[in-house]
Write a structure and sequence with these properties.
The chain is mainly beta. The chain is built from one helix and 26 strands. Helices cover 4% and strands 49% of the residues. The strands form four sheets. The chain has a 17-stranded parallel beta sheet that branches. The chain has a five-stranded mixed beta sheet with strand order 18-20-21-24-23, with no helix packed on it. It has a two-stranded antiparallel sheet with strand order 17-25.
């Protein structure tokens, strides 16, 4: 067992030093504890790898500050996310996170992962547990928790407030969302098998889940639904088709989406089929992002108990 306080993670340090110290402790894997109570500032993205349990004891509060690089990433992310590689056996226990006016500004064509926009972002992950999680002060872009390309996740004892989605799931199999309190302007829970290209990292079926004992608290102003459930369908690419932002096609053994300016509604004519293996590439002035390594033509939500 490792105590991150012994690595220099301290309420007395600045946000950058704290980020470095916490990352250094987490890189050891195993069980990492933060035991000394206080407000800890962090500025840089914290990456979590396989077989890692991160435990925040009572009285420990994390508060975000702007990154020294000028690019605010996610507060927490799994290490394999950027490479498209799966991480396994990750637990985050007792995390109390104050957004403090900071959200990820890693959007659009230049983003590392199109559609990834959360304080706690986990994609390509198996056997994930987030328990005793509080997140307050969400702004207009970031979700509190976003998970996609997952297998077997448990999200328990949540208290999330702010302006964006509390829990936002994309493609995945086997999940539990239990004992949650939400006061969010947008959806407390979103099961978005299909969404805008800047809102979802993948398209694909969300299935075999349980949502229980979750409460949508009253607020002065709100929109959305307690649990948004989205599906979608698309066609195979063909020469001369007109597309716009977030349009989806199946071609060359993969599924691709258009990633352009979401506000202009402009149509583009596609003459060249996308064929790159991952990430974003341009064809005929159109940016295409890979969202599945298969040529599926629809997605939705199934076998879910609320």
């Amino acid at each position: 067992m490792i105590n991150a306080n012994e690595y220099g993670f301290s309420p007395e340090n600045n946000a950058y030093k704290n980020s470095e110290a916490l990352q250094k402790a987490i890189d050891n894997g195993g069980v990492i504890e933060i035991t000394a109570s206080g407000i800890y500032k962090i500025s840089e993205q914290i990456e979590i790898g396989d077989n890692t349990k991160l435990v925040f004891r009572e009285g420990v509060i994390l508060q975000r500050e702007a990154s020294v690089t000028g690019i605010n990433g996610n507060a927490f992310i799994n290490k394999g996310a950027l490479k498209g590689e799966y991480n396994r056996n990750i637990e985050i226990i007792g995390l109390y996170l104050e957004c403090n006016g900071i959200e990820s500004n890693d959007f659009g064509v230049n983003s590392r992962i199109a559609g990834l926009r959360a304080q706690v972002a986990m994609i390509y992950v198996e056997d994930l547990i987030i328990d005793g999680f509080q997140c307050h002060g969400l702004l207009e872009k970031d979700y509190a928790i976003q998970v996609s390309a997952f297998k077997n996740i448990v999200l328990n004892d949540l208290y999330i407030t702010g302006n964006k989605d509390g829990v936002h799931l994309g493609w995945g199999d086997e999940f539990v969302i239990r004992n949650g309190k939400f006061r969010t302007f947008d959806d407390p829970i979103a099961l978005n098998a299909f969404d805008y290209a800047t809102s979802n990292t993948h398209v694909g079926w969300i299935e075999n889940g349980i949502i229980e004992n979750c409460v949508d608290l009253d607020d002065e102003s709100t929109t959305g639904f307690f649990c948004r459930i989205l599906g979608g369908a698309w066609c195979r690419w063909y020469k001369g088709m007109q597309v716009q932002h977030s349009d989806t096609v199946a071609v060359n053994g993969k599924t691709y989406r258009v990633l352009m300016n979401p506000k202009d509604g402009k149509l583009y004519t596609s003459h060249t089929p996308p064929g790159h293996e991952k990430g974003i590439a341009e064809y005929d002035g159109i940016n295409w992002v890979v969202v599945r390594n298969s040529e599926e033509l629809d997605c939705g939500c199934r076998n879910i108990i609320i």
